[in-house]
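Deliverable D4.2, example record:
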Amino acid sequence: MTTSSSYQSPFEFLGIHSKVTRLLLRKVITIGLVAAMLVSAAEAWLSYQERLDVLHQNFISIGNFVAPPLVHSLWSFDNDQTEVQLTGFVKILDVTAVRLEQDGQPPLLFGQKVVLEKFERTFPLVHTEGDVQHRLGTLVLIKDMRQVHSSMIRMLAANFVGNTLVIVIIILLVLYAYHSQVRRRLAQVVSELSNTEPKDLRKLAGAEPGSEPLRDEIDALVAAIVKLKSMGGRALNAIDARNLELEVLLDELADSQTLLQSVIDTSPVRVFWKNRELKYLGCNPAFAQDAGKKSPSELIGRDDFSMGWAAQAELYRADDRQVMGSGLPRLGFEEPQSTPDGRMTWIRTSKVPLRNTANEVVGVLGMYEDITERKASEQKLLESESRFRELVESIPGFAYRCKFDSNWTMAYFSPGFTELTGHSIEDFVDNRVRSYASIIHPDDLDFVDRVVRTGTENRQPFEIEYRIFDSQGRIIWVGERGCGHFDQDGQTNYLIGVIFDITKRKQNELELEQHRHRLQELVVEQTQDLRTAKEMAETANIAKSAFLANMSHEIRTPLNAITGMTYILRRHGVSVHQADKLEKIETASKHLLEIINSVLDLSKIEAGKFSLSEEVIRPVDLIESVSNMIKPQARAKGLTYTVDLPSLPDNLIGDHTRLRQALLNYLTNAVKFTDAGSIALRAKLVDDSADATVLRFEVSDTGPGIPPEFLSKLFSAFEQADNTVTRKYGGTGLGLAITRKIARLMGGEAGVETRLGAGSTFWLTVRLRKSEPSSAMSSVQSAIDVEKALKRDFSGSKVLLAEDEPINREIAQYLLESVGLMTTLAEDGAQAFELARKYDYDLILMDMRMPNMDGLEATRRIRQLPGGKHTPILAMTANAFAEDKARCFEAGMNDFIGKPASPENLFSVILYWLRISLSPPSGAPAGLPGDL
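Output generated by the structure prediction step:
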């Protein structure tokens, strides 16, 4: 460097007068500018890529959010909603425009039109229905990138200026460091001496200064320092070697102590040690846990009087003094011990003297294990053996234990052996005088041997009856039950069993055998008579069921025509006079249907085929329902109707329909037989337990009352209080009989309290199970709502109607077409099958009884057709028995509509199954259409 220049530059502190400095400065500035440009460009490019990634993620999130509702609108052809949604999408951050592309339609663009510098993401619009996907079009989200590009250019310029400034500052700092190299060398020497650590000296042990010539005083100083460090390092290494030897010895000692402590701490037995004052010096964790302490340190310095076993402290201390005084161990003795929680346990203890290096006794070392369970097991075993001996000695007959050898050597007999046979037990044990086989009847000996050995070899208990001789030579019949006992290798080592006296039974059997022959002759004679009577009864029962089923079908078929035509006439509009006549026809039809249902219910009850369903019953809703049905009849006769309903449990489980039927039977009779006054319906809580509730319902009237002589037969089938009232009031006499049977099936009873001339109170009780509270309410649709729903949602749906009766076919066709359903008619099952084979129908209504081919066979064949598995097939038949309904479901039908079918019920069931068949899965109804 040149130092003679008289000119002082402002950057003199950098050594700017040096040629090397100026050369370095030019090159470094050039490299710095290039680096600043590259770094700035890289930062701008990375920022732009991050912006693109953010836009991509935003567009993915926006697309996933807006696509489903847009698909729903497109699938529903809701163009207005689609336009509203597309207009709203443009308002979302980062979305400049949206474009909807659909096959066969010009694309729809909303927002600004962007031609160049744009960012797009495309989202397919697909509607999934079942396993089928419907492509509705494509949604394109667009972002104008011009502003982003301008921002990137501004960022590039700003970053270049900033990076250039930083690089220039770094260059100036580097030049300053270079210029001050000499001064820093001295500072480094001072720092080296000040910060030298022992580890640094150890590394330089044996080091020597370099052989190159010393250039200046700084190099000489450095050489002296290196020599000094080398000497210090050698001294430290010598000390380290000695310390290492000491550490090895200490580690070995620590390992030994750790191993010993680990053995003590993990030992399953409890270990402790005390000083001569019998205070604890230490213990393992298991001992501390028994003492109720968290760690062994809590016991140090304590004695046994401060422990949970203070009651045994003197006993333990006496043991300790004996061991320390004698200098001899005391091993394996058992003692009781109290626990901190007050329990009494048993321990097995060993104690030895604790000695120091001078072999002096300085304390006691002890250990014990908890043997409480073993002591309890031993006690239980003793008690079990005692009970077993008492049991064995108290059983009738005697028990035995016999070796499994060729001589059947007897090992044990209970005292009952002598009581039964008169023989001495000692004579037979180990076959001292004679064997047990010697008293078995010779004719039974081989049989007994074979049965016992076969059962034992098959590892099965054996049971046998045979004869033995008592001490007087008399024959005794005995029964024997026994089994083999097997050792660990699975080999039979002995037999155990019991033998009891069956002589009296054998004598009785002999007498019974003599009687049996005579009875058998009598039975043969009676069997033929019973078989004939049984066949006659079965024939009569089959004829009765067939008659009821046939009569029900024959009555319901024209009744369906009557109710259907009445409904059609009303819909076409009639005069007031005609409406009155139609209402009377409809009332008579309902009355006739009630009679038919009552007869069928009674027949099912008597045949044991009447079953109750389980559904939620809310007493408040039940009372309101029957009240709404009976109030118009009471008002028509000028009667006062009241309800007394206290607070009752909700959400009970029982047969809602049958309970309502029973109450309606009572209320209908009350209105029928009461000419003036009032009728009252009351409900009471009789019993309430955790799982069930017993309710009592009463219907009181101010009618004429019932004579006492008629009360006994009041609840009998086809009976009334006075059969002459039938001519005045009508009725079948089945209502009360059915009500009592319903009450009994529901765990209650039914009866009447009456006073002649002062009215009657009919009552019934039922037991209903409790269920969890539920806020779910069944949705009920009116007939008008059902018809509107059918016309709105399923107009034009194709329905196949299979019905052989012309009038019923005409009525059903009219009802179906009145709600917009396209109806195809079939006069029998064969026609229905052919039509279903040729055409696709949304729903099929199938009669059960039809000529040529009935509805059941037609349904089976339709289910075998391609696509026929999923078509709803509904039975619409006058066969009302449960067996008929089960046969319909077994044949593959989905639902059952009994004739006469009300339009409301028919429309409700059809709506339910069309929704399941034709609507998307998400729109399927959640529940059943109701009681059919």
